[in-house]
UniProtKB/TrEMBL annotation:
Protein's recorded name: DUF4244 domain-containing protein
A Pfam family matched in the record: DUF4244
UniProt lineage: Bacteria, Bacillati, Actinomycetota, Actinomycetes, Kitasatosporales
Superkingdom of source: Bacteria
InterPro entries: DUF4244 (IPR025338)
Length: 83
């Protein structure tokens, strides 16, 4: 008695059907329409705009008098540190 790989008798037809179904699924996946062709460009544009906005906010914060004074103090202490 041929038990097959699954332990059931007479599974040759089911196995062939499964292989055919997988082959058809792969072929359909390969033929699917790729509707996200312009998505990458839009994502890059949004990322660039976000980076520019973040840079503008960061520039405003760093050039403010409070942060500028703190940075000057920190650099001054680092330059005059004794080792």
């Amino acid at each position: 008695m041929d038990m097959g790989m699954s332990g059931m008798r007479g599974t040759g037809g089911a196995r062939a059907f499964a292989i055919t179904a997988v082959s058809r699924l792969r072929a359909a996946w390969a033929r699917r329409p790729r509707s996200d062709a312009g998505m990458t460009t839009a994502e890059y544009a949004m990322g660039t705009i976000s980076a520019c906005a973040f840079a503008a906010v960061l520039y405003k914060v760093v050039t403010g008098s409070t942060v500028q004074g703190a940075l000057q103090s920190l650099i001054g202490r680092a330059l005059h540190a004794t080792f």
